[in-house]
Amino acid sequence: MTNSTLTRPDLERATRSYQSRLLEAMKSQYPLDQQVKFLHLQADAESLLQQLQAMKQQRQATNPNG
Fold first, then answer.
1. What is the pLDDT of residues 35-64, one digit of tens each?
2. How far is CA 13 from the centre of its chain?
3. How far apart are CA 65 and CA 13, in angstroms?
4. Alpha carbons 43 and 49: distance in angstroms, whole number
5. Number of neighbours of residue 41 by Cβ within 10 angstroms
6. CA nearest 8: which of 60, 65, 59, 57?
């Protein structure tokens, strides 16, 4: 069994592709106001994820052994 990980550019490209497909699907299924709410929530979630990743990197930099 192999342990494959995506590089950051690969992950970003895959995320953009997924988001693009999701937006196209949403356009035909959900009213505009619901799409806007979803996009705001998605942006909030992405922002929180980036904050967590930054905190993790800071923690690792200040305490590399644990």
1. 899 999 999 999 999 999 999 999 999 987
2. 11
3. 32
4. 10
5. 10
6. 57
Q: Which tokens hold the place of 19?
A: 């988001």
**Tokens of residue 56, six digits:** 């993790």
- Positive or negative CA dihedral for 2, 58, 50, 12? negative
Q: Which of 50, 66, 62, 56 is nearest to 15 (CA)?
A: 50
User: With a threshold of 0.85, does the pTM exceed it?
Assistant: no
Structure tokens, 41: 């929530």
Cα four-point dihedral sign 8, 9, 13, 19: positive
Cα Rg of the chain, angstroms? 17
